[in-house]
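Internal ticket - ligand job 295, flavin-adenine dinucleotide:
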Amino acid sequence: MNQAVCTMAEKLNIIIVGASYLGSKVARALAKSMPQDLAVNHRILLIERNSHFSHLFTFPRFVVVPNHEHKAFIPMSKLFNEAQCNAQIITASVETVNESEIVLDRDTPFGRRLPWHILVMATGSRLSPPANMPTSTKVDSVQYLKNLQERIRTAKSIALVGGGAVGVQISTDIKSYYSDKEVHLIHSRDRLMSRFDASLGDIVLQTCKELGIHVHLGTRAKLPDTDGPCTIELQSGEIISVDLYLKCTGQVINSEPIRELAKESINSDGTIHVLRTLQVEKHPRIFAVGDVNDL
Ligand SMILES: Cc1cc2nc3c(=O)[nH]c(=O)nc-3n(C[C@H](O)[C@H](O)[C@H](O)COP(=O)(O)OP(=O)(O)OC[C@H]3O[C@@H](n4cnc5c(N)ncnc54)[C@H](O)[C@@H]3O)c2cc1C
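stdout (structure tokens):
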């Protein structure tokens, strides 16, 4: 192997923030395809605040079904193979980005402030736990899921607020796995999974009814301060008492690190406006991919 390729000092940084579905794919594709003449003076730094790749799609099920939770957190150590040694993963959170540097939340072997040449924002979005983990390490996240599984197992009644994909999946999994529990699904819109096609909402509602889930549509809930036992007051006046309450609403777009630098490209919902090339207007060396952009 060409030793020059593996010397990481004094190279221009191609920084990818976020190592989830999009960021890890971009980083691997770049590392694989970078020509030797570019690799001698560029390095790829993939920055991720979580210790492991989080396979989000499995979270709703592993909230309910025990003994699989460890499978949701996948080591990233094999993301780049030896031949792609101009790529590294840094475990840290990016706090801010200015014209020339990114600032991390901690000291790393690469320092706390890193100059950037190309920046790829792959920071996605976040939801309240359990749709996202409240912690950043595998050990703590596995423990969090185990605790929640136990609380669900012992609760006689459970309310979920938010009838999007996450609320629907968790409530139907609870009722499929524990048919004797009283499950309430509360949604402010007139249709479940209202961001999708209307016919899907009808199918999902029918399935919820067949499972015996109490679906409350078109009503807002006054959110309790505790996750239970608690009472939940609905706009309709109805009051529901449950042993456990799960919040499945409130998606936030993770564009904070560049909100100051590229303020003219941040939409009101927090997404980053990009051109068809995925570049941020007026900042041609910044790209945004995945859920964080507005495509
Ligand atoms: C519970 C759940 C289930 C889902 N199920 C499905 C499904 O079945 N099918 C489907 O198609 N879609 C599903 N989705 C949606 C899908 O997960 C998203 O579309 C997808 O995750 C978007 O990928 P992304 O890489 O753009 O961002 P994300 O997956 O949101 O990843 C962003 C990454 O950036 C990191 N990050 C953020 N900010 C920083 C920072 N400042 N510094 C360092 N790192 C940072 C985060 O830790 C995270 O790893 C689901 C979503 C959830 C929450």
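Auto-summary: Residues 17-23, 47-50, 54, 56-57, 59-60, 93-94, 122-125, 127, 131, 166, 254, 257, 290-291 surround flavin-adenine dinucleotide (CB under 6 Å). Confidence is low (pLDDT under 50) at residues 1-6.
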